[in-house]
Amino acid sequence: MANIGFGGALLIFVIALIVFGPKKLPELGRAVGSTLREFKQSTKGIMDDHEKEKEK
Q: Which residues of the chain have pLDDT under 70?
């Protein structure tokens, strides 16, 4: 997935724009961003708990 390149990313963006429309796309971006942020915070909490258990 890291080897998409500029052309592939542009193609994905254009298809998403056609499917979801220009008004819905920013809402989807915000939803994905908040979901990823919440997931990151959750995994960080789990890792912190794991580190505390290792110290005991």
A: 1-2, 56
Q: How many whole angstroms separate alpha carbon 10 and alpha carbon 39? A: 26
Sequence-ordered list of residues with C-beta below 8 angstroms from that of 17, at least 6 positions apart, any chain: 25
How far apart CA 16 and CA 5 sit, in angstroms, is: 17
Report how far residue 55's alpha carbon sits from residue 50's, in angstroms, rounded to the nearest whole number.
Answer: 9
Structure-token pair, residue 32: 């994905």
Q: Exposure of 45 by Cβ count < 10 A (0-12 exposed, 13-18 middle, 19+ buried)?
A: exposed
pTM of the model: 0.55
